[in-house]
């Protein structure tokens, strides 16, 4: 059965690989130009969550971990996967605690995004976390993470100059910088301008 998707027509859809985290689909399509084509689509079983924590001294926390797909280390904001149907905020709180040992009393929603929309339907949500309390890091068995506390402006500089290349981290840090410029660099005003979230 033909399925119309905007200017595209999906002629067939076949799952060619699946694991607990993702499903890879092979689509036969009719392109917007009317030609026959194929499309590979990665469907994630979770949404991505990211957190920018900020302490009372204007510092944030980044994590460095080895990314198998890239075969190199990557500096990122704390991130994780939220199973579909679960609370992104609750997952963000858990990931922040696991990766940095931090908990936060105040949360705000910074942004929604699509991580790589030419090949995947994965979406992400990014939160700001404030009023931090330091606890113990509780990493998952697959994680080997280095945590770095640094001034927020240094983290933003890393996103701007290419030391951070993770898409969620770059988008979140650059958006936060733009918002801060609009509020004269006042993070508190940025925070209160965003939807505050409750666990």
- Secondary-structure arrangement, i.e. CATH architecture of the largest domain: Alpha-Beta Complex
For the secondary structure, the number of strands is: 12
- Please write the string of helix (H) and strand (E) elements: EEEEEEEEHEEEHHHE
Q: What proportion of the residues form beta strands (DSSP E)?
A: over 45%
Structural class: alpha+beta
The end-to-end distance, rounded to whole angstroms, is 43 Å
Any idea of the CATH topology of the largest domain?
Answer: Nucleoside Triphosphate Pyrophosphohydrolase
Spatial strand order of the main sheet: 8-5-10-9-12
Based on CA atoms alone, the radius of gyration comes out at 19 Å
Low confidence ranges: none
Keywords:
199 residues; alpha+beta; Nucleoside Triphosphate Pyrophosphohydrolase; 2 domains; five-stranded mixed beta sheet; four-stranded antiparallel beta sheet; 4 helices; 23% helix; globular
């Amino acid at each position: 059965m033909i399925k119309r998707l905007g200017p595209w027509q999906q002629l067939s859809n076949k799952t060619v690989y699946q694991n607990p985290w993702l499903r890879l689909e092979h689509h036969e399509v009719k392109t917007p130009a009317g030609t026959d084509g194929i499309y590979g689509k990665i469907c994630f079983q979770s949404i991505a969550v990211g957190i920018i924590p900020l302490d009372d001294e204007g510092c944030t926390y980044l994590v460095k971990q080895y990314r198998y797909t890239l075969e190199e280390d990557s500096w990122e904001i704390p991130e994780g996967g939220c199973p579909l149907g679960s609370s992104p905020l609750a997952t963000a709180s858990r990931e922040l605690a696991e990766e940095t040992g931090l908990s936060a009393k105040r949360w705000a929603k910074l942004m929604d995004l699509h991580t790589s929309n030419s090949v995947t339907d994965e979406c992400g949500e990014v939160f700001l976390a404030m009023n931090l309390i330091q606890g113990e890091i509780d990493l998952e068995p697959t994680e080997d993470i280095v945590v770095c506390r640094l001034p927020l402006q240094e983290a933003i500089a890393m996103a701007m100059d290419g030391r951070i290349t993770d898409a969620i981290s770059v988008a979140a840090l650059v958006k936060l910088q733009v918002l801060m410029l609009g509020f004269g660099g006042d993070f508190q005003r940025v925070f209160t301008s965003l939807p505050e979230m409750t666990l």
